[in-house]
Design brief:
The first copy, chain A, is α/β, with parallel strands linked by helices and 343 residues long. Chain A has 12 helices and 11 strands. Chain A has a 6-stranded parallel beta sheet, sandwiched between helices. In chain A, β5, α9 and β6 form a beta-alpha-beta unit. At the A-B interface, α7, α9, β6 and α10 of A face α7, α9, β6 and α10 of B. Chains A, B: It is found in: Mitochondrion. Chains A, B: Its main location: mitochondrion. Chains A, B: One of its GO terms (biological process) is carboxylic acid metabolic process.
Chain lengths: 343, 343
């Protein structure tokens, strides 16, 4: 790095370079301070993109082996109601991932004016269709529909999002079930990054039913049961946790998992040196200087990485894991349905 | 009290009385210390027995009014498999409470050798029986039965224990459902004792699926949703929480709810002055001096009451609430079924 700086020195403004070198030295001193005090330097970045790619490669192999034993290609059907841009993007990413791992897929596009009854009829047809293994309805659905009714309409066996109340109940009872892809992705990230959770202090920031609640459940529950949960002591913080208390709980945590959609909520001062910080938040913000938009998480990444032991970036952290685990769920559904049809 | 001591003085051994008076003075000084330091004295005892009696009196009135509008008496059927003594006692208490509030009841006693299939058949018959509103199978069932299968066999509408996976899922999604009687009793105790939980720090010690998990869920979830939950920041501690960490979390808590069955687990040093301590634990122990058995909770009651602001005794705390809330659930089932049958 310093060599590079010296090279630049020959061609650039002197003052600017001195400032750059000084900043670099300051940063190195900072790192050395932590390295000295806590026996580590900058946080290790948990590369969700790389881990997700690893999972997808494994899945590709497994799907190949599944087909080699005479089974048809697993199939995922996504239903997209209306024209929400973010939903379009998410569904496209899922369909690409399906193709990548050898799962056939289809997107049913329905106009925003579709009635709830029509949607339920389509789900019913897909439930009965033996060529379909996984069904997902991209949320949110238009306001005139009851989201809960829609989620419950998908039969448990094909409910690859794990939002059916029956799957939720099974998960909360530590029983085998379809676990929502994002919480499953967080757990898989922790496992593959080798983060010890047994008897450790974890904080889950947020209490949403599709993301935070399942994370809290999987983090605290008994690893000896069917969900193979993480046995951590878990504190659930949420919008009504006073900021001072949130900071206190976070500073005690070995693992912080945040899923609030509040950019910059988790700051350096709140993080215990060496802690593992998993950022599930994802918010699109506009840079006031450039006017360009970018995705950010709940964590002040640049600051927190100086203290944490492990950290996930946004984007490239939990996001790719969600897509990979959805494929995992679809393949699980295909295997289960193949077993049911055989018996 | 001192008057009484003086009266005893005339009739009893002098030395003993002096000791008694000194102890009393010491205790008063201790109380004054806390009264001075924390602006309160001994913990206020939350009288579960009295609150349960209040709830039962209200229920009695409501059931009377329900019958006065032409409905038949609500009916609860309990199934008791085998001869477990504790189970016998629990079922008897429930049946007495039913009679007390005007709910008719019946106990089906089945031999321990009953097959799972036979039990499921009986449940199926009760599910279809329009004269039955609530069904409960006293747990534990004999080892040759699958407890989960038995719990799921009771239709949700009559599942007054709230153990059916569908009811569990609904509860975890903050939807109206049958909530297990003990967790519901704990929440009702807090509400009736006027304990503020909004944004407060709560610790739930234990992670059992029938008691602690629902308590953690109801304590942290959103009060604006259908379960009317308590909006506290909740830490879930369990057998793998190191003792030092348990003590740390408890000492930060405004509310401690413990349900472990480990007598004396919660000591004075762990409790923040003024905190509310709810003891769900209940263990029968033998007094090594007298050889007699007695019921104790998880909390070192005599010590903790000197620090806490509110405390429940064992027995006479959560126990009577469980029975009262089971009656509440049975009456709710009767009202719901009456509505369904009418429509």
């Amino acid at each position: 790095m310093l060599l590079g700086v010296r090279w630049v020195l020959r061609t650039q403004n002197y003052k600017c370079i001195v400032k750059c070198v000084l900043m670099q030295q300051q940063r190195q001193q900072q790192q050395q301070f932590y390295a000295h005090k806590h026996n580590f330097s900058m946080a290790q970045i948990i590369d969700g993109k790389a881990i997700a790619a690893e999972i997808r490669a494994e899945l590709r192999k497994d799907v190949e082996a599944f087909k080699a034993t005479g089974h048809r290609e697993p199939h995922l059907t996504a239903i997209l109601v209306g024209n929400d841009q973010a939903s379009e993007t998410y569904v496209r990413m899922k369909m690409n991932a399906a193709q990548d791992v050898g799962i056939s897929s289809e997107t049913r596009r329905l106009p925003a004016t579709t009635s709830e009854h029509e949607l339920l009829d389509i789900i019913d047809t897909l439930n009965k269709d033996e060529s379909v293994d996984g069904i997902l309805v991209q949320l949110p659905v238009p306001d005139h529909m009851n989201e809960r009714k829609v989620c419950n309409a998908i039969v448990c066996e094909k409910d690859v999002d794990g939002f059916n109340v029956f799957n939720v109940g099974r998960m909360c009872l530590d029983m085998k079930s379809m676990i929502p892809a994002t919480p499953l992705g967080v757990i898989e990230l922790l496992k593959r990054a080798g983060i010890d959770t047994f008897g450790k202090n974890a904080v889950v920031v947020g209490r949403s039913k599709n993301v935070s609640m399942p994370i809290a459940m999987l983090m605290h529950a008994d690893g000896r049961n069917e969900t193979g949960a993480m046995d951590a002591t878990v504190t659930i913080c949420h919008r009504f946790t006073p900021p001072k208390e949130l900071a206190k709980y976070c500073s005690m945590a070995d693992i912080i998992i945040t899923a609030t959609g509040v950019p910059g909520l988790i700051t350096k001062e709140m993080v215990k040196p060496g802690a593992c910080v998993i950022d599930v938040g994802i918010t699109r913000i506009t840079d006031p200087n450039t006017g360009k938009t970018k995705l950010v998480g709940d964590v002040d990444f640049e600051e927190v990485r100086q203290v944490a032991g492990y950290i996930t970036p946004v984007p490239g952290g939990v996001g790719p894991m969600t897509v990979a685990m959805l494929m995992h769920n679809t393949f699980t559904a295909a295997k289960n349905l193949a077993k049911i049809n055989k018996s």
